[in-house]
Amino acid sequence: MTDQNRQPLEESPEVADAVEDDVAVDAFITGGGPDADNPEFLQPGEEPTVRTGADQPWDPEDLAAAEGRDPTPENVERAREELERDGAAAIERTVP
């Protein structure tokens, strides 16, 4: 087949079949809930429900590891001091 006889891709039967296929993709169906195109708006004065990293208990070993440090005794002690001094703020700085 020469280039002159070649059919444009847009006019091929495969493309026509793909265009005609009007089936919804399950992964893109939100069921009408909030998403990037349909955000959920709060009423004036209403506070959002937000879950943060500090909503769960943290051990000094966990904080040291979350900061990318090996859980050596020195790093664990530093994380323990940071947790005692700063509380949840120490976690929020690392795991918002």
Defining traits:
96 residues, mainly alpha, 4 helices
**Strand residue percentage:** under 5%
Approximate shape: elongated
The residue fraction in helices comes out at: 25-40%
Please give the count of helices: 4
Mean of residue pLDDT values = 80
Structural class: mainly alpha
Question: From the alpha-carbon coordinates, what is the Rg to the nearest angstrom?
Answer: 27 Å
The parts where pLDDT drops under 50 for at least 5 residues are none
Region (Disordered): 28-96
Biased composition (Basic and acidic residues): 67-87
Describe this structure in words.
It is built from 4 helices and no strands. The longest helix is centred in the C-terminal third of the chain and has 14 residues. By secondary structure, it is mainly alpha-helical. The model has no long low-confidence stretch (mean pLDDT 80). Helix content is 38%, strand content 0%. It has one domain. The protein starts with 12 loop residues before the first helix and ends with a helix.
